Structure formats: C-alpha cells, structure tokens
Amino acid sequence: MSSTHARQPLAERMRPSSLEEFVGQRHLLAQGKLLSSALSRGRLPSLILWGPPGCGKTTLARILSDEVGAQLAPLSAVSGGVKDIRQAVEQAGDLRRMLGQTTVLFVDEIHRFNKAQQDALLPHVEQGTVTLIGATTENPSFEVNAALLSRCRTLVLEALDDQAITSLLRQALVAPSRGLGLPDDALSDDALGALLNVAEGDARAALNTLELAATFAAARGSHTIEHPDVEEAAQQRVIRYDKAGDAHYNTVSAFIKSMRGSDPDAAVYYMVRMLEGGEDPLFVLRRMVIFASEDIGNADPGALRVALDAAEAFRFMGMPEGVLPMTQAVIYLACAPKSNSALTTYAAARKALQHSGNLPLPKHLLNAPTKLMANLGHGRGYKYPHNFSGNYVAGESYLPEDLQGQRFYQPGDNEVIPRPPGLDPDAEARRKAAQPEGPSPNPYHKNAT
Predict the structure, then answer these.
(1) If exposure means fewest CB atoms within 10 Å of the residue's CB, which of 10, 95, 134, 443 is most exposed?
(2) Domain 24-156: top CATH class
(3) CATH number corresponding to 253-335
C-alpha cells in the first residue's frame, strides 16, 4: 500500500473510479434510464442527487463528470459561499472559452446553501456556464429553491442493500493495494452481520468500521475480524440478528405471540429488538397488518385501520420518528380483544371447496340478463331481503345444495359485529356465559380496574 493510500480512510481508497466499479443505483444507470441515455449522447443535464448518506452521491458525480469529459469543480455548501461560487464560475468560463471544455460544478450538501447562495447559481446554470450537480440528504422540494430545482433533474438514490454492502466489504477486505489485503475468510459471518447492521445502507460507514475493526483484531493478535471487534470499532452494542436465519424467525415469532397474548411490553421489546438488529421496518409493519386481521379481526375491526395507518405514517415520516406510530400501533394491537374467526372461517370454507369441488350454484342466486336464462330458471324464487322484516329472509339458503346447513363462520366470544338473525341463535348466549364477571384479568384491557 502506498504512503498516500495509507493516509486515506478505507472508504476513500475504495471509491469507485468508473461506472463498471460503481455498486447500486441500477434504477438510474440501467440501459434506457436517464443517466444511461445522457451518457450515450455525451451530454449531462444539471442534476440534484437526493439520497441517504453513503449511497454514492459524491462518487456518482465524479464518475459522471469523467464520463462526459468535463472538469469537476467540487464545492461544499457547508464551508463555501457566494465568493466560492463566483470563483468556480469564472474558472469554468475560462475553460469554456479557451479549451471548449465544460465544467461540472458539484455542490455537496446543497441544502445548506441559503436562498441568496442558491440564487447565485441560477444564472450560470441557465446560461450553461456550468452543469450543476447538487447532492443532498434532505428533500429538495423543501430545501432547494423552486427556480433552481426546475432547471435540474432530481434523481433519488437508494440506500445500498445488504448484498451491495457485502460486495463492497469483501472487495475491500482482499484488495491488496487499496484495501486491507486480507484473506477472504478473515471476516467472520458474525462480524459481517454486525457490519451490515452498523452500516444501515451506508457504504462509507461500513468500510470505515471494517478498517477500524481490522485494527482491533490485529491488536489482539487475531487473523480474523470477529463480532466484538466490530462492536469496539462502532462504539456501540450491535445486536446479533441474522435477517435470514433463526434469529429472524424466532424473534418475529416471539413478537407475534406476545401481541396475541395481549402483552404490550413484550411485543414492543421484540419490535425494538428487530429494528435495532437491522430488520426492515416495513416487514414488521406487514406482520402487524396481518395480525390485525388474523388475531383481532371483528373483535375490534378498527385494529386493521390502526395497523394500516401506522404503515402509511411510517412511509411519510421515515426513520427515526417512524418508530413512534409503529410503537403506538403495537400497543393497540396487543391490548385489543382477540378473535381468529377470519382465519378459521376462511380455512373451513377452503376445506369444503377442496373436498366438494366446484358445486353447481343455486339457481335462484344466478343472474338472468336474457330471456333464455330466465327460462332456464336463473334467478327464479330469489327473495330480496330488504323486502322482509329485519332485512332477513328466514329459512333462505345461499350455499350450494350439497353444503346447505354447514357453518364456516363461528363467531368469536369477543366479536362486536351484529350477528345475522339466522346464525346460531345460541351463539350470543354462549358468548355472554363465557365472559368472566368483573374486570378483565389482562391489566391492559379497557375494562380492567
């Protein structure tokens, strides 16, 4: 490793220098997409690159500039100002007049520029003196002036997935000059999982933590980077949680069973354990929506809306604030009365269908849009329930003939929806008899004292 490389952080040494080396963002770089088409024409529009830290915004700007043969003029909005903008624009104008070369003005963290500073960029972008590439972690709709935003194409970059981060870590581990020059097995599976959890899609964080973890491993005389080395490098406890292994399935099982058992403390604990272990919050939210129908159902029909609202709120808020509606919903679901009749009713109806096959439909339920169908008896004898007392036809049957009298739906004791008049007249009496007198034994239920 050269002395220059040795002084640079691993993330900087491993920075890709071409599109072939660039990992991720295929939705922007694939054939036929905006960037691919622009590069094929050799002309780059002004861009706003919006994405989380470590997803490749700076690297992509450098590569795009090289691809179109432009001079890159980097500028940080944290430390730069109008004076720096003017200087960069003057140099770009000189290059254009003297050499015919275009300049890409790359403004990192462009959202840090105030309105006056952003306005200073506007005429030079309009005149084509520079091609602007602004990078931001904030929503440009709120942080970039509308006039400037309208003259740029906004591209949304995504956090790198575990597969992409793993690929980068493996490359950095074994690369002899730019990387650590270690054997491929010098990183344990536990340590890799911990690095993925620490990174949370941030390639820079993953690589720099790997470099420091390798230092700790070497200091204790080991040739293998282990889980404790990553914890020491990250200066935080990294939950051992394999999103594709036993820890994943066991923890989500404990989460669901805790909600089913009406224990909000345990349910929230397991939700936190999954999230801190790097689980996708949308996976947890999907399990909550399923639970609202499978285990609560019509004992509290509003539970499904609570779970869906939590998912929508999370998509709107993102992390970290998005954990608040998630927690709110988990508490509600755990404390809600329970019924699994949606699950058992579907299973019973499906079993009957599999056993009996596609039985003929009752003729009085069939449509009769033509005279021929009416002559065949379609719709004959159908009784319109709204014409009868209570909007119910006593003794009427709607199942196929071979299934008449079968009951698929058995109301749960907690269900709050009205019972149809013909549905097991003793069900309500049995439900009341099954209800314990006095307050609920569950201290979280609303009728508890």
Answers:
(1) 443
(2) alpha beta
(3) 1.20.272.10
